[in-house]
Amino acid sequence: MSLPKIACCLLAVGSMFVAGGVGATGAAAASSGSSVMAQPAITTRITGAETACDPSKNGTPCTFTVETTTGPSTPVSAGDLATDGALTSATGQKLSAAAASGPISSRSWSQSYIAKKAGVTFWKEVHEGRFYYDGYTVWVANYRGTTNGYHTCDLGGSTWVTITVQQCGKRGERTAGMDIFDIFKVSVPAAATATHKMNYHPNGNGTVTATIPY
Question: In the chain, what are the domain boundaries?
Answer without folding.
Answer: 42-89+103-211
